[in-house]
Write a structure and sequence with these properties.
- Helix content is 25%, strand content 28%.
- The chain has 3 helices and 11 strands.
- It has helices at 7-20, 31-46, 82-102; strands at 22-25, 51-52, 71-74, 108-116, 122-125, 135-142, 155-158, 166-170, 177-181, 187-189, 196-204.
- A hairpin with a 7-residue loop joins strand 7 and strand 8.
Length: 207
């Protein structure tokens, strides 16, 4: 099971983020590592640790499946299993590489499992709130070892909030990591036709 940091891969992610605002690493994690994390996600769901995702903030937070249809389970470093701790360490290594290369000043990582059931998606959005600039880089790591085109659930990236043309379409195949700038790259998840698993995370400035 490999969660080891890869300096060459991290450099490529840094370069792509600097040039385009997003990066895709198809083999960020090994198949065994993906399987271990998916097993942890399934275990946590069986223990009723997942809940329906909501949109908005504070008193305005609500469930709206027409906008966002996934269920999530937040990762807590203190309660993490061995595979989860290894993942958090790998993402921390990436965070440090991004700080060294791009001078982003990100010091915190928050992450959760996400499961989209058949028919669920997430409408186009930015990951940074209008009144909070803490989120700098958004991360999505896919945990679907045998995803097929017919399973849908692709991630669509746009180069800006206003852009109409797609910049990239990413299939949620296991081991693939997508990194994007939280404040500029809008994106959406098209409806899945099978259960679609991932870890979503954000590299944040201290607030």
């Amino acid at each position: 099971m490999s969660f080891e940091a890869d300096a060459t891969e991290d450099d490529a992610i840094c370069d792509a983020l600097a040039a385009r605002g997003f990066a895709v690493a198809p083999d960020f994690l090994s198949r065994d590592a993906v399987s271990a994390l998916r097993a942890e996600a399934l275990r946590r769901r069986a223990a009723s640790e997942f809940h329906a995702a909501r949109v908005g903030r504070g008193d305005a937070m609500q469930r709206d499946a027409a906008i966002r249809g996934d269920e999530v389970c937040w990762l807590d470093a203190q309660a993490a299993s061995a595979p989860e701790r290894a993942l958090l360490a790998r993402l921390t290594a990436l965070r440090l590489a991004l700080n060294r290369t791009l001078f982003l000043g990100v010091h915190e990582l928050e992450a959760h499992y996400a499961c989209y059931g058949p028919g669920a998606g997430y409408a186009r959005h930015l990951d940074r709130f209008s009144d909070d600039d803490a989120r700098v880089i958004s991360l999505v790591l896919y945990l679907n070892p045998s995803w097929r085109e017919a399973d849908g659930g692709v991630l669509q990236l746009f180069a800006s909030r206003e852009a109409r043309e797609l910049a990239l379409v990413v299939a949620p195949r296991g081991g693939t990591l997508v990194a994007l700038r939280s404040d500029t790259i809008s994106h959406e998840v098209l409806a899945a036709h099978a259960e679609r698993w991932s870890v979503a995370g954000w590299l944040r400035r201290r607030t």
